[in-house]
Specification:
Elements: H1 6-15, H2 22-35, H3 39-51, H4 61-71, H5 83-92, E1 106-111, E2 114-119, H6 121-132, H7 139-165, E3 169-172, H8 180-192, E4 196-199
Parallel strand pairs: 3-4
Antiparallel strand pairs: 1-2
């Protein structure tokens, strides 16, 4: 399944990107071939996406962490829940450059008259792919940059919600916050922006 196979998850994410330049399209094709070397399996994945067979949309952060872990060649298979994400966190903790060069653009959408804020994953991934091609980019620094981008995205979302609701309290929950690097950076950014932050301590 895609939850176990991070390489497949990453390949499928790449297949759905709407790249503009021919150079980026070639880069994506090369990466897909590296992630899924078997042509028949890659073609099956493409057909499943095209015809919406055994596919579903997911807002899971876990699958995005799997994707980045696989793209950076850190971990491509989850032998247990969260293995690829844990490996990504461990590599990120070794970064010498602790900043990010990528962002998640946030757009406003409406579903049944309810306003929603959506972080644009595809735009982020295209930006991240560009950073991966930089000769000076180290895997450790790219792994940290991803964590920092996610923490900044959470802050941006919270700022947007606070602007509308005046709500200043934020609760961090879910498996993704077992990642102590992401948790610590998110809490730090939120507190610096004046938010009161809560999280699970006893489960």
């Amino acid at each position: 399944t895609s939850a176990q196979d991070a390489n497949l998850t990453a390949a499928v994410q790449l297949m759905q990107l709407n790249a503009k330049s021919e150079q980026t399209k070639r880069q994506i094709q090369t990466m897909v071939e590296q992630l899924i070397p078997e042509a028949s399996r890659a073609n099956m994945a493409k057909a499943a996406i095209k015809h919406h067979i055994n596919t579903s949309q997911s807002s899971s952060m876990g699958r995005l962490f799997d994707t980045i872990s696989a793209l950076l060649g850190i971990c491509g298979q989850n032998g247990y829940e969260g293995e690829c994400a844990s490996a990504l966190e461990n590599v990120a903790s070794l970064a010498s450059i602790r900043e990010t060069w990528c962002t998640f653009p946030i757009v406003e959408s409406k579903e049944q008259d309810q306003k929603m804020l959506i972080a644009q994953r595809d735009a982020f991934l295209l930006d991240f792919l560009q950073q991966m091609t930089q000769k000076s980019a180290k895997v450790t620094d790219l792994a940290f940059a991803f964590h920092e981008a996610v923490a900044q995205m959470i802050l941006d979302m919270c700022n947007a919600v606070r602007l509308d609701t005046k709500q200043n309290k934020v609760a961090l929950s879910g498996g993704v916050f077992a990642n102590m690097l992401l948790w610590s950076r998110t809490v730090s950014l939120l507190r610096k922006s004046g938010f009161e932050v809560f999280w699970n301590e006893k489960v």
